[in-house]
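FAQ
Q: What does a multi-component entry look like?
A: The components come first, one per line:
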Amino acid sequence: MDLVNKVNLRFLILLIVVFTVAGVALYFAMGYVVTDNIDEILESRALKVTQSLTCNPKQGSYGASPDQSIEIDYCSPRHVYKVFSDTAIYDTNDKELIGCRKLTFITKVNDQYYKVQIILSRLETEDMIQVIFYFMISLFTCIVIALFFLNKRLSSGLWSPFFKTLHQLKSFKAGQKNEIVFEKCSIKEFSELNMVLNEMINKIQSDFNNLKEFTENASHELQTPLAIIKTKLETVLQCKSLPHESQGQVQIAYQAVTRLSKLNEALLLLSKIENRQFPDESMINLCELIADRVAVVEDMLSLRQISITLNLDTPFQIRINPYLADILINNLLSNAIRHNVDNGKILIDSFGDKIVFSNTGKSLDIEPEKIFQRFVKQKQINESNGLGLSIAYEICKNSNLELEYNNQNALHNFILSSGGQASAKAID
Amino acid sequence: MKILIVEDEKDLRETIIGFLKIEGYVCEYSETLAQGSEKLDIYEYDCLLLDIGLPDGSGLELIKLLKERHPETGIIIISARNSLDNKIEGLDLGADDYIAKPFNLTELNSRIKSVIRRVKFAGRKEIVAGQLKILPDSRQVFANHQQIALTRKEFDLLIFFVSNPERVLTKEAIAEHLWGDFADSSDTFDFVYSQIKNLRHKIIEKTGADYFQNVYGAGYTFNLKSNC
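Then the predicted structure of the entire assembly, as tokens:
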């Protein structure tokens, strides 16, 4: 539920409460005023009745007026009093009870006591309640309709700077070159929001750049000593006078430093991908790339008698950084070779929206869910640094692709699909 | 052949120079951008080894300078900053090759030779090694006027060995030279072994000479004083 509707809902609930309370209060207030009025009228009539009794004292029975609104009776001497009360009389015409106000009083005129009752219908109050009710309902409806139009205007007008900001933020990526410039707006809250966002974005960008510089520098600082170790060891290996047993030791150190530098490179690559430092993307047909790469490793495959079946007639076009595409295919392909068995097979099938890399191989001794995690590797493979598939996974995440693993028909299947990109296209 | 090495890391620089001197190169060096451009102003070199991250600026500046003065000098970028931007920018500016730290000295040596061949001799120069005559341009190998049919990989391997005679080429260096990114695949060393076996066999068949020597555990050497 969006903000405007949420606010409206609260407003409407509040409005219902207020209207009910106001209606009830109005009813009682009006009722009081009307009763007061009727009582005044009754009083004035009582005065008139007393006067007329004084002027025309009649002997005998008095009885009621024709409309039964006034009833005068003799009565025995007693205290003079006056009392107002509510009553109802049966209207023979309308065949219903009508609420009335009755004034009963005892008066003494020329030594004769009279008991007088004056009745006045208060039909008007009931009409009044109806009027109030309908008035309230129609007012309420008017307000709801007014709110509806107000909202339309608000969301298109008042809220538009907010939505513009939101739209700009959606396209924001740390490390991108083009800066986000928010439009100026006259609403204080929104301009404050934009200001805060601007500060935040600047902070993110500078943090990002610092981090990027740090990774770059770490790379520089590490690679140079590694290069020195490696070249020194290589020089020692070239030395002909080196005793046989030392040569073995140097060789082991050399292999270790080679592994170390590859590990360092892989970790750097991972952090660079995570930092989105490969922004330049272009449309690439992965099928062509795969065919290219397979040609490079053909001799490796034939040596291990691994048969490879390519089914790449359906092009698989995706938006991706060309360098990352290269690494992605390299890693998936070398994974399929590395974990294969002699006389095994590799199948690569393109379906237009996905490519499936399948290979024979030993069963996993790790949990399948962990296959893309860093430093998770099969026990029997030592040379692997356990980062190849993590890098492939990160590349996919970075390029809005999906990479899944399953084990079906005794094959390890890696499914590369254009999931995120396809839905992005649909939105466009 | 004269080579200028622009590298601020003393240890690395001296190791490179030590290695290249044995190859018969005349090596000079500079530690900074300023020194480098001064040297390039005065002297002429066959090849420039250039580190991009220098204390007083980016080595890329030197490429521009050199391309104006002596375009026939080969340029190889050595960089720890294995960032693509630098690589692309460097090659765009006219560098001939790019090698990332840490590298194998034998690989560097092979690249230097290849660059010099390309730049100085437009790749037309033939390489003679023992009884072998290699035409890098057309990727052909002859022994006693008979062509030896080699696969792509075998040819690359031969060039790599011939560029580094009497050096120990480690299995790692060979694997990286032949397969690049695939080099860390398991059993790569088996592939290296089988490639060398095939190449060796083909050369023995045509020349009767076995130039390859197994250095136990470490790798192989290409030895022209062959033991027939």
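Q: Is there any commentary attached?
A: Sometimes. For this entry: The longest strand of chain B covers residues 74-79.
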